[in-house]
Amino acid sequence: AQTVTQSQPEMSVQEAETVTLSCTYDTSESDYYLFWYKQPPSRQMILVIRQEAYKQQNATENRFSVNFQKAAKSFSLKISDSQLGDAAMYFCAYRDDKIIFGKGTRLHILP
Amino acid sequence: ETGVTQTPRHLVMGMTNKKSLKCEQHLGHNAMYWYKQSAKKPLELMFVYSLEERVENNSVPSRFSPECPNSSHLFLHLHTLQPEDSALYLCASSQGRWGGQPQHFGDGTRLSIL
């Protein structure tokens, strides 16, 4: 069965610095999608970034980028130039015909 | 209105009550989902509807009863709930049930069982 593991329950980063959130997953499938979602204190979960497993190129969205290592089944999220508004729970998710979420990482931004 | 709207935002009910959670999406999506979010646990997928047909039911107790009357509306009917059912219930929608289309989430309903 597919699993998603986020090994860091909480992290802190200084404003304007860079932080990396880790995510590993387990699957026997070769075709799937990976997502990072952000859930601020206001609760609405929003998509941060998406990666297709068949693409070797790492996805990038402005200050957010991923390091996708398919063989290692690793999918980390890098946030550059951290801002106060980045404070939230971050969830890693895996999707083929099922959708599996990790437990999340709470990110604190220190002013 | 845009996006995914859930009502009510908060709900307190006794174990013998019957209530319903409502979700409405204005995105033209054809798949809708119910999730349960409890503290320190992964998001749990409860039900999936695709084109108004229930396509997934992840061993959810029968005290939770979903209903999808059309592609824009999704309900979760609740009856004789237990204290462990207290959680944040999230609704989501997507264009297509498969593949890389992301899900769009509502704000959730915070449910407390007395």
Sheet having the most strands of chain A: 6 strands, mixed
What kind of oligomer do you see? heterodimer
What's the overall average pLDDT of chain B, rounded? Answer: 91
Give unreliable regions of chain A as ranges: none
Envelope shape of chain A: globular
Question: What's the helix-strand series of chain A?
Answer: EEEEEEEEEEEE
What is the 3D shape of chain B? globular
Question: Which structural class should the secondary elements of chain B be placed in?
Answer: mainly beta
- Measured between the Cα atoms of the first and last residue of chain B, the distance is 33 Å
Helix content of chain A: under 10%
Order of helices and strands of chain B: EEEEEEEEEEE
Q: From the alpha-carbon coordinates, what is the Rg of chain A to the nearest angstrom?
A: 13 Å
Number of strands of chain B: 11
Helix content of chain B: under 10%
Largest sheet of chain B: 7 strands, mixed
- DSSP summary, beta strand count of chain A: 12
Greatest interface (CB-CB under 8 A), with counts per chain = A-B, 22 and 19 residues
By DSSP (H or I, 4+ residues per run), the number of helices of chain A equals: 0
Low-pLDDT residue intervals, each spanning 5 or more residues of chain B: none
Short description, anyone?
Chain A has 111 residues and is an all-beta fold. Chain A is built from no helices and 12 strands.
Molecular structure report:
- The complex is a heterodimer of chains A (111) and B (114).
- Chain A is an all-beta fold and 111 residues long.
- In chain A, a hairpin with a 2-residue loop joins strand 7 (60-61) and strand 8 (64-69).
- Chain A is globular.
- Chain A starts with a strand and ends with a strand.
- Chain A contains no helices and 12 strands.
- With 114 residues, chain B is mainly beta.
- Chain B has no helices and 11 strands.
- In chain B, the strands form 2 sheets. In chain B, strands 2, 4, 5, 6, 9, 10 and 11 form a 7-stranded mixed sheet that branches.
- The N and C termini of chain B lie far apart (33 Å).
- At the A-B interface, strand 5, strand 6 and strand 11 of A face strand 9 and strand 10 of B.
